[in-house]
Amino acid sequence: MSNTVVLDVDGTLVDTNYHHTVAWLRAFRGVDVTVPAWRVHRAIGMGGDRLVAAVAGDKVERDHGDAVRAAWERHFDEMLDEIQPLEGAHRLVRAATDLGLAVVLASSGKRKHVEHYLKLIDPGDVASTSSDDVEDSKPAPDLIKVALREVKSTRAVVVGDSVWDCEAAVHAGLPSIGLLTGGFGEEELVDSGASAVYSDLDSLRAELADLPFAELAEPEA
To answer: InterPro entries per the record (predicted)?
Structure first.
């Protein structure tokens, strides 16, 4: 069974975290809710099903959650043509497959956005999952488990830019690698479970063969 690299997408392979932050801010303001930008950025990487309550509280979720998510999607779609891959994204994925590693992209984003990113990254023939494939998004481990089923693997390492990626890996019983590409700090990524943190994708690419692969934990009873 091949070792598998489970790669986050937003903030890890494509430079979207601050676009997402702006889109969410505009969505909240559309229902007359003002939240600080830093708090929104801190929540990027968790799924939209969780973000509204995490950022603005349960009452805003109850009263406006679906409206805010719909507005976020509309505002983000308006910026989609501005999105660019992060430097080294294509090289990282191709290097991993050249080493014989299985690669699967596991995104908390929507399927239509992931499909757009795939065109930008040109990763070759790799599997991918999105929030459309699970009921519970990061930091729950569901996306990781679905991603591994896609490639029929149970031995993996998770790579991501946010604390939510690292926490999802912990819940799955897997090691994680952090990247500084999404604006989260090294110390907080380590505190959330990352066994190592890299400043950019090319630095990670140079050490792909030495990543700490491990077996997926058994599902909870």
So the answer is: HAD-like_hydrolase_sf, HAD-like_sf, HAD-SF_hydro_IA, HAD_sf, PGP-like_dom2
Instruction: Return all residues near 157 (Cβ < 8 A) that are at least 6 apart.
Output: 3, 4, 5, 6, 174, 175, 176, 177, 211, 212, 213, 214
Token readout for 184 is 């989260």
Element (H, E) at 59: helix 58-79
CA distances (Å), origin 12, targets 36, 101, 172 = 23, 18, 19
- Whether residue 170 contacts residue 163, with contact meaning beta carbons closer than 8 Å, is answered with no
Residue with tokens 């500084």: 180
Specify the DSSP element, H or E, that contains 38. helix 37-43
Q: How many CB atoms lie within 10 A of CB 18?
A: 16
- Rounded CA separation 204/92 (Å): 8
Q: What is the pTM of this model?
A: 0.93
pLDDT tens over the chain, length 221 residues:
589 999 999 999 999 999 999 999 999 999 999 999 999 999 999 888 899 999 999 999 999 999 999 999 999 999 999 999 999 999 999 999 999 999 999 988 889 999 999 999 999 889 998 888 888 888 889 999 999 999 999 999 999 999 999 999 999 999 999 999 999 999 999 999 999 999 999 999 999 999 999 999 864 43
H or E element, residue 119 = helix 111-121
